[in-house]
Specification:
The protein has helices spanning about 40-45, 70-85, 95-100, 130-140, 145-155, 160-165, 170-175, 180-190, 215-225, 245, 250-260, and strands at about 1-5, 10-20, 20-25, 50-55, 85-90, 110-115, 205-210, 230-235. It is α/β, with parallel strands linked by helices. The chain has one domain (about 1-125, about 185-260): 3-Layer(aba) Sandwich (Rossmann fold), CATH 3.40.50.1820. Strands 1-2-4-3-5-6-7-8 form an eight-stranded mixed beta sheet, sandwiched between helices. Strand 7 (about 205-210), helix 9 and strand 8 form a beta-alpha-beta unit. The protein is globular, with a radius of gyration of 17 Å. About 45% of the residues are buried.
Length: about 260
Amino acid sequence: MIANAISPDGTSIGFWHGGRGQPILFVHGTVADHKSWAALAPRFEPDFAVYALDRRGRGLSDDAPTYDLRREAEDVAAVITAIGQPVCLFGHSFGGLCSLEAALLTDQVSHLILYEPAVPTGTTVASPAVLAQIAALAERDDFAAAMTLFCREVAQMSEDELALYRRSPLWTERLPLAKTIAREMATEQRYRFDAARFAGLTMPALLLLGSDSPPMYRVGVEIVNAALPQSQIVQLPGQQNIAHHTAPDLLVKAVVDFLAHYL
């Protein structure tokens, strides 16, 4: 089923939902949409009400003339309000950063799950030249080249992960989303993580980390873990940043095991 919420700036944010039970809301990362969770949703639906939004500028959602991380956080909070009850909030990568900020805007997050959230680590993800090249390729509508460069240089996917991703039907669908890369990467570079802001987030929090992910992801997870009062880190053996594609059963088990302690 498809529905929508209206963010405070008037932008319509679309979301898909199915199943019944405790709500779990998925927030995707860069160059993705709600279909990122296609392999996970059927595994959760027997026991959970599954929600997956499209972040602004793609799929079911509208966009606005200007872009800001605060607007993204407000979008997530608006969907939570539309759901109408406390949710388990699951954010991946840049969507993890949006979710972390959204948790400051609502008291309706019962559990917080962040999979390698895109917080600054003091390490440059990619050089300004690479980011400029991605932006230039997207401006020329060379979305495949922009997406490939992003996956290799920014997301730091292995060649095996990238090959799997490019064989996925989602690859072709997502190529136009390359237009959103530059604004999100610029936002990520400007963002300053202030641990004190998150000291009041006392809900149980699970921080997921691929055991084979590049060191910057581990550092980011550790930074967030140190800031949240009630968090734990769980590694996904043999995985990197896209276990929802490469090992969905493993990812589902980690989430269900975590929630089993609280539900």
